[in-house]
Amino acid sequence: MIRTLIHKDTGESYTITLDQTTLITQSEAQKTELKLSSPLEGTRTFEKKEWEQLKKGFVYSIPEAQQGKPRLHQFIQRAYTGCLSMVDLKDKIGVYRHQNFDNDLLDLFQCDGTYLKALTLPKALPWSLRYMVQHQLLIMDVDHYIYGMDLVTEIAAQWTSGFETPASFISTSKSLVFYGASPNIFLKDVAKNDLLFTREMPLENFGGHTPVFKGCLSEDEQQLAICTRPGAVDLLDLSGELIKTIEGNFQIADKMEFLDNTTLLIKEKYGTGGLRLFDLESGEELLDKIHKTPNSGGKYVDSFDLDLKNNRLLITNRAKATVYQLPTFEPLLSFPIEHCVKQAQAIFTGDNTVSVRTDYGCFSMYSV
Question: Which residues contact 261 (CB under 8 A, 6 or more apart)?
Fold first, then answer.
């Protein structure tokens, strides 16, 4: 295994070579050789040496990487706040970077990993980011306040004034934004700049401490889903009126997405910690289909992302990512996430790329 890193400022190169138990590092100044006790120790030392250089400003970039292999590694920051958000901006990628607890940054990269610039966010901790490409509008859930930022002017407008408990969400389609700051939910048509409805929702706490509050909007802009109590999701029409309630033995919906007009995918917090799939017509859980997925149906899932254009599902589970085909949930590709301690966020960024932000402070791109 050979990797060559290039310093982003000086252009200096640094090469790391591993042959079973022999590790060779070579910079423009010196060459060193190290004998390791086993191939496993060799692999670990190789990754440690690479990480040391990434923290010094070196970048690993190989656009022609094979499937499941990294095409980019770049160090973002040392501080870990628990927030690992990223956003696909179509011709760019936005990656969260902590600055201070007044306001954070969104680093912008080209699709080949070239750094462009940083956007200053209105507050710290952007827990969720969504981009509406037709309106060049970035929707942000920043520390449970909802904002819309015009990416042409880079001016952010605050959409919510506060919250009762630290619970919030955002969900977007082509022209609509469904968002909430507890206990209120809102539906906005950004094309017409029209607030279609606002409504207060009574929330329950799970275990007496965690507010239950998560929502999503269908891609066809015909229905909304809102979870405000354990084990139940209300389906609403676009006026906020109840269509029906889906019930199950899940605890908290930590994230929800409509797969199509007939099914709802839920990432459960607590309980199984995995994925749950429900038929919207019958309200029943589709156990056979979802249990085909190795990292769900009872196994913990850190994050998931959808590529509805190509009918794919991406799941991260600690330092592992898996891509599945929809609607069959058959696995297409699994690969290890490098430079990750315990947790990573991953999203599709294009047809052939998955971008990853790890708790170690690394921004990576993998070929898929």
Answer: 218, 220, 222, 280
CA torsion through residues 361, 65, 299, 302, sign? positive
Structure confidence at residue 271 as a pLDDT band (50, 70, 90): confident
Tokens 């029409």, residue?
237
- Angle (CA) 186-140-304 rounded to 5° is 95
> Residue 296 has which token pair?
């769900």
How far apart are alpha carbons 213 and 199 in whole angstroms? Answer: 13
φ, ψ for residue 131 (rounded to 5)?
A: -115, 130
Q: Which amino acid is at 206?
A: F
Rounded Cα distance between 174 and 177, Å, is: 9
Report yes or no: 284 and 303 within 8 Å, Cβ to Cβ. no
* Tens digit of each residue's pLDDT (9 = 90 or more) over 137-194: 999 999 999 999 999 999 999 999 989 899 999 999 999 999 999 999 999 999 999 9
Contact 256, 234 (CB under 8 A): no
Q: What is the mean pLDDT of residues 300-313?
A: 92
Residue 107: what pLDDT? 95
Residues 6+ apart with CB under 8 A from 348: 88, 305, 306, 307, 312, 314, 354, 355, 368
Tell me which residue of 236, 283, 238 sits closest to 264, measured CA to CA.
283
Q: Give the residue among 139, 178, 144 at the shortest CA–CA distance from 157.
A: 139
Cβ atoms of 185 and 198 closer than 8 Å: yes
- The alpha carbons of the chain give a radius of gyration, in whole angstroms, of 22
Q: Do you know the residue count of the chain?
A: 368
For the chain, how far is it from start to end, CA to CA, in angstroms? Answer: 20
Where do we find the tokens 């430079």?
339
Contact (Cβ atoms closer than 8 angstroms) between residue 247 and residue 283: yes
